[in-house]
Amino acid sequence: MSYKIGFIGAGNMGGCLITAATQTTMSKDICVFDKDAEKANYYSENYDVVSASLDEVLEAQIIVMGVKPQVYQILIDSIKDKICNREDDFLVVSMAAGVSMDSICEMFGKRIPLIRIMPNMACDTNEGVMVYDSNELVSHTTESEFVKIFSNVGLLDKLDENLIDAACAVTGCGPAFVYMFIEAMADGVVACGLPREKAIAYSAQMMKGAAAKTLEGEHPEKLKDKVCSPGGSTIAGVISLENAGFRGAVNSAVTSAYQRNKDLGKKNID
Ligand SMILES: NC(=O)c1ccc[n+]([C@@H]2O[C@H](COP(=O)([O-])OP(=O)(O)OC[C@H]3O[C@@H](n4cnc5c(N)ncnc54)[C@H](OP(=O)(O)O)[C@@H]3O)[C@@H](O)[C@H]2O)c1
Questions:
Q1: What span, in angstroms and rounded, lies between the C-alpha atoms of 43 and 52?
Q2: d(CA 74, CA 12)
């Protein structure tokens, strides 16, 4: 039996995407192989997907490679004969940070139908972001199938591959920056007397609401101005953030993450 989608690697991100796929696709159509059988078994026990052999995964219509970029060459060397001999309408999906579609095809020694994705850790909660691009060999039918399977991740957006590393500096790395912000705000309000648990819950919920308002389409600057009453407490806090170099610090967190992404991508394929 050939599966609709097969995952190689059920670690942090592979697992997150298996969970996302179960929201749109029958679990019997999803299979997973991990060299650590316990990880694959976790998803078969908790999400009813099929824990399969590597050979079975390689027969799936869509094969998702969910391993670290450092072991890409080893994985590809072990699967390339099977993949390169396929003549049906199949697709390989890569989620490796910083590794281009051209370099993956080079590792296979052949141009194969490929989609490169950059998901983030919220993709299993319907609040994630996944950007993707496809190469010239991906058929319209298979790309539509891919879009259908991952339609529940949150924001699923096709983006030119040249911009994927830039997007990742916000979508992939950004959650860590946001956690720091939530924690820092919670610290501040704990200093003002709030219990820690409530401080974190209020801070996170406030962020979620502020983000939801921004997604309705109004520019963040306008939204900010709306909550800054003349002579009020919010503008006092805004000025304090400006004096501490808040915007510059955030800008350079994102550009440093982008640069590191580029460097790592180069290192992993050298
Ligand atoms: N984590 C993120 O937030 C994130 C975000 C965007 C993209 N990504 C990308 O997602 C990919 C996976 O990252 P991750 O954080 O999920 O890594 P991870 O947690 O280490 O998961 C990778 C899994 O694949 C297994 N594995 C390694 N080689 C294998 C092979 N040849 N056959 C079958 N299974 C194999 C690993 O087993 P062992 O542990 O035993 O080696 C591990 O269980 C990476 O390419 C990364 O760049 C991650």
A1: 11
A2: 20
Ligand 1 pocket, residue 67 CB under 6 Å: yes
Q: Is 154 in the pocket of ligand 1 (CB under 6 A)?
A: no
pLDDT at 261: 84
Determine the distance separating the centroid of ligand 1 and the alpha carbon of 136, expressed in angstroms.
Answer: 26
For the record, the structure tokens of 151 come out as 């339609």
Predicted confidence at residue 262, as pLDDT, reads: 83
User: Same domain, yes or no, for 206 and 148?
Assistant: no
Taking the centre of ligand 1 as the mean of its atom positions, its distance from the CA of residue 269, in whole angstroms, is 16
* Residue that finishes a domain, picked among 111, 143, 164: 164
- Looking at the DSSP bridge assignments, the partners of residue 7 are 32, 64
CATH number (domain holding residue 230): 1.10.3730.10
**Domain span including residue 185:** 174-266
Q: What is the pLDDT of residues 121-139, one digit of tens each?
A: 999 999 999 999 999 999 9
Q: What is the average pLDDT across 188-214?
A: 97
pLDDT value at 98 more than 70: yes
Residue whose CA is at the smallest distance from ligand 1 atom 25: 9
Ligand 1 within 6 A of CB of 68: yes
Which pLDDT score, from 0 to 100, does residue 1 have? 62
Q: Which residues of 6-41 are buried (b: 16+ CB within 10 A; e: fewer)?
A: bbbbbeebbbbbbbbbbeebeeebbbbbbeeeebbe
Same domain, 120 and 180: no
Residue 117 CA, closest ligand 1 atom number? 7
Asked if the structure places residue 169 within a domain, the reply is no
Of 117, 137, 164, which marks where a domain is finished?
A: 164
Model confidence pTM above 0.70: yes
Mutate to test the pocket of ligand 1, among 68, 123, 150, 165 (most ligand atoms within 8 A of CB): 68
